[in-house]
Design a protein that fits this description.
One of its GO terms (molecular function) is DNA-binding transcription factor activity. Pfam families: FCD, GntR. It comes from Caenispirillum bisanense. Keywords: DNA-binding, Transcription, Transcription regulation. This is Transcriptional regulator, GntR family. This protein is mainly α. The chain folds into two domains: about 60 residues, Orthogonal Bundle (Arc Repressor Mutant, subunit A); about 140 residues, GntR ligand-binding domain-like (Four Helix Bundle (Hemerythrin (Met), subunit A), Up-down Bundle). The protein has ten helices and three strands; from the N terminus they run H-E-H-H-E-E-H-H-H-H-H-H-H. Strands 1-3-2 form a three-stranded antiparallel β-sheet. Strand 2 and strand 3 form a beta hairpin. It is elongated and about 55 Å long. The termini are far apart.
């Protein structure tokens, strides 16, 4: 699977995401465009784009007279985002099981093979890119443009948290196993199983959610 070369803005966004999740940037810290441009030795254009992406995902807020600051995420808000995301993706999987054509089903199997290759190499960035293609294939396979658009919008909001989860030891292997279960259900035209398995794959709950929260720096979640 060809991989898109990350833009400078993508690289800056990921670096800032890592700083936020690692606690090097704390809730309320100001993100000054000029200082960031000097730190990363770039112009302010990719910095602005990176901040726009972070704002779209809710990791930072743009406040009057303060500019961009690291956001405080409330725990109920985080839970609600994942609950809604799980339901939307479950609906996509349900419809994909019923509506995917033979070419789309073959393409979905190939994406899982790509995920498997990155999992074996423990290539986090490669796996995350393949993971996005996997979910996009199922959104498109639902053949419901309104649903796909809504799901992609929330996917962008939850993307930093989903990426961060993959840092947990063993999570990539777990994620791949969950992908395979979803695909098996879709290929078997089992809409109910596809929906249930996709919801379980996306929703962070129980021990997985506790482990996820425990990796966030103190003060990040209110």
């Amino acid at each position: 699977m060809p991989r898109r070369t990350p833009t400078r803005a993508d690289q800056l966004r990921r670096a800032l995401e890592e700083d936020i999740f690692a606690g090097r940037l704390k809730p309320g810290d100001r993100l000054d465009e000029q200082s960031l441009a000097q730190r990363f030795d770039v112009s302010r254009t990719p910095v602005r784009e990176a901040l726009r992406q972070l704002s779209a995902s809710g990791l930072i807020e743009v406040r009057p007279r303060q500019g961009a600051v690291v956001a405080v995420i409330t725990l109920p808000r985080l839970v609600e985002m994942f609950e809604v995301m799980a339901e939307l993706e479950a609906m996509c999987a349900r419809l994909a099981a019923r509506r995917m054509n033979p070419a789309e089903r073959e393409a979905l199997k190939k994406v899982v093979r790509d995920c498997e290759g990155f999992e074996k190499k423990i290539d986090l960035e490669g796996y995350y890119a393949a993971n996005k293609v996997f979910h996009d294939a199922i959104y498109d396979g639902s053949h419901n443009e309104v649903l796909a658009e809504m799901t992609r919008t929330l996917h962008r909001r939850t993307a930093p948290y989903r990426r961060h989860q993959l840092n947990r030891p063993g999570r990539i292997s777990e994620s791949l196993a969950e992908h395979k279960q979803v695909v098996d259900a879709i290929l078997a035209y089992d809409a109910d199983a596809a929906s249930r398995l996709m919801a379980r794959h996306v929703n962070v709950q129980g021990d997985v959610f506790t482990d996820f929260i425990s990796t966030l720096p103190q003060g990040y979640v209110a």
